[in-house]
Design a protein that fits this description.
28% strand
Length: 161
């Protein structure tokens, strides 16, 4: 994928430690509101990054949890990268998906039910590389994880299962 210089500058800023802090602490609180308000058309994410408003069931609480995440499509599937900005621990939403794989995703103004599973083997390699090609920050996050392998989650529409 050829990226324009402006996108590359934004990408570099977002993958910095300050940019990662902004994504995890500011954008993550504003994007759910923006996505609902605009029918999924706008978020803080740079143009070209697709966003999903994911509703999971809390692994410990059993309560609904919503989180806005960058995603990409792979056929009818939605792909999520559990990078947590390169932190040594997995994000909470990852644990929620592992405990309760039935989720809903609000994407591009439409809510769909999905079943989540973790990519393995060749699927993992292909999807993580595709994500890193789209956003180079993922490769940097992998370096920061202190040995944690960043999971790739695949959301398959329930009607296909």
């Amino acid at each position: 994928m050829t990226k324009n210089p402006q996108y590359e500058r934004v990408e570099k800023m977002l993958s910095s430690r300050l940019g990662t802090w902004f994504i995890l602490n500011v954008s993550s609180r504003i994007d759910p509101f923006l996505l609902r308000l605009t029918g999924g058309r706008y978020s803080i994410a740079p143009p070209g990054m697709m966003m999903v408003l994911l509703t999971t069931i809390g692994a410990k609480s059993g309560q609904p949890r919503q989180v806005a995440l960058v995603c990409f499509a792979d056929g009818n599937n939605i792909i999520l990268i559990a990078s947590n900005g390169g932190k040594p621990k997995h994000p909470a939403w990852y644990h929620n998906l592992k405990a309760n794989p039935h989720v809903t995703a609000y994407i591009q103004g439409k809510t769909t039910a999905y079943i989540a599973h973790e990519a393995q083997g060749e699927d993992y390699d292909r999807l993580f590389q595709r994500a890193a090609d789209h956003y180079s920050g993922y490769a940097l996050y992998q370096e920061r994880t202190e040995g944690r392998r960043i999971p790739v989650m695949i959301l398959t529409p329930e009607t296909q299962s």
